[in-house]
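batch_manifest entry 22 of 60
target: histidine kinase
source organism: Haloferax sulfurifontis ATCC BAA-897
requested by: lab member K.T.
priority: normal
notes from requester: please return tokens only, no post-processing; we will run our own comparison against the previous entry in this batch. if the run fails, retry once and flag.
--- input ---
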Amino acid sequence: MTTSESPHIVYVDDDAALLDLGETYLRKLSSFEVTTCSDPTAALDIVRDSDIDCVVSDYDMPAMTGVELLETVREEHGSLPFILFTGKGSEEVASDAISAGVTDYLQKQPSSEQYELLVNRIENSVSEHRATRRAERYETVLEALGYPVYVVDERGRFTYVNDAFADLSGYAVDEILGSGPELVKDDADVQKAASELGGVLSSSGPDTTQFEIELRTADGEAVPCRDHMGYLPYEGEAFRGSVGILRNISGERARRDELARDEHIIRAAGDPVYSLDADDRFEYVNDAFVELVGHDRDRVLGSHLSSYLPDADYETYESLRASLGDGAETDRLTFETQLLAADGDGRDRVPMECHLTLLHDDGCEVVGTTGILRDISERLAQEAELSLMRRAIDEASVGITITGPSEDDCPIVYANAAFEELTGYDADEILGENHRVLQGPDTDEEECERFREAIADEEPCSIELLNYRRDGTPFWNHCEITPVHGDDGRVANYIGFQREVTERNARQRLLERQNERLSEFTRVVSHDLRTPLTTARGYFDIVAESPGDADAEDLRKLGRSLDRVEELLSDLTTLATQGETVVETEPLDFRRAAERAWETVPTDDAELRFDRTAGGASRTIAADESRLRQLLENLFENAVAHGGPEVTVTIGRTRNGFFVEDDGDGFPADRSPAECFEAGVSERRGGGLGLAIVKRIAAAHDWTPTAERGSAGGARFVFTESATAAGPPARRQRSDD
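--- output ---
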């Protein structure tokens, strides 16, 4: 239908003269746009193809009657105005026309008044139809809006509400129409609406107003709404009423409350939070951010992000932010950066993890960014520590494996390079396998069962097994396993340490055989010497009680010889039983150890001095306390025995060891000092066995003993620590084959 001011009329009549006459009157009496047609079928085509406001048709036409044309128009065009203008009127025709939905019915008269009446009927029909269509369109729009809409008259009574209004209020439309606003508002909101309307109606007021009310539903619920209200167009000077659109703001209020709550949470959050505008200037920072950067909030707000990032990090940020532009799958990302914070002496770089999100306006345009920062200093330190531990495990000289007890058969989930070298298996071959892959025909099943029981009991275990390399070569494996517990206290893994002890075991067996021979030797010597010595000592005591019967000097010589034989027997026994010397080292006060050894030696008038010129005798030394004492006692006894009762013994530390020196007679001129450590050397210096014992104790500590002539002509013994002996306390084992 046309929206122009002048209606478009189709005038249909099979009589050409009457058709021409009618067109003339219609054009003369109105501003109508008139299209004439003598064929009803052609008229239908015009109606279908053009925007027609009204059809005026004769009744009696050969191809189709006016009523038949009307029926077709109604089927295709609904309520389009249709006036039957016929010269053959009858009650039957009028009845058929009314039944078919005719808009109006007029009989032709040969006078201008009849055409004036026709023009009037056309204008009224078109105006009413247009108004109806407009109302239908408005109502359709109002319904399509989805918002509750109401109209009240000048008395404040509802004259229109849409379905959305009825749904919101819980009342039926019929219940609302004709009632006052008190049906859905309390007195305070009724007064508020009246006041707002008064402001709109005032000469200086706005055309519309907005205010909040609470709509009272049929169930008694109060629904918060925003009322957009205006007034209806006046009819002359008469106020006709008001119209309004309601919007349920329950969600909006909830969002406002949520935003307020979120802002409170963000302000109180432990992590720094910020937002930037499109130019990367700070629009918001929470308390944690202010505390982090060490500046006042007013100084931060409005400042540029680049002021708080190193240049390289800001360039990285720009690149990452640009990657979130059009076509990106996401509008957020996480990256690591460094934040420049005030630390009192300059700018401190704090490693941070930033969770960045783009901010958009209602038109989906990017208006800035927001981010949450998290200090990752501790995490990076932990990662560095874990990386160091991983490298230490990877590069350890002992074989290390980790197994997963939560999986079937407790498979190996990690093996280091030393394990690969020890077993001949590559990591990709051994991962997923059980340690049984190393077992073979001669592996001790009882020891394996101990292993399995320890794992079942979640206990550490240490065993030695005969294992087999990938190529079938057997080797002795010292295995230790320890459970590793997770945060929940349950065993998460087992870590295993494997060290080849094939050579050590071979030496052990050799030493055992040597010690067996030495033990037999000791038993024989002890039996063969102690019995005659005991007898000789008995007779000597008898003779000594009657010195007149024997030469006293000879008897004293006999006594000294017997004492010497007994001393040699004691030293020989000590030497023989120390076929294997095992020491447990610990940090010892060297001076204190020397003093204790000196106290146990019969020194007569001998003097012990400490030399501090070469490192200080009070420094600690890594040694086995009992063995160090035995070594020093032998050296002190040797000095007193060969230097005399008034000998002076000097002891001190060197840069990598210690020395013991006396001012006695020293070593024989025809013999090298180094020979003093050999068993059986007893001329002037060395007891033959005492210094041999000293040599073995030194070897057990990884010390190298040397003998040389002292500055005062006496004997000087120097002990040099190896790199291993100078290290942290450890269990050391030495043997003399």
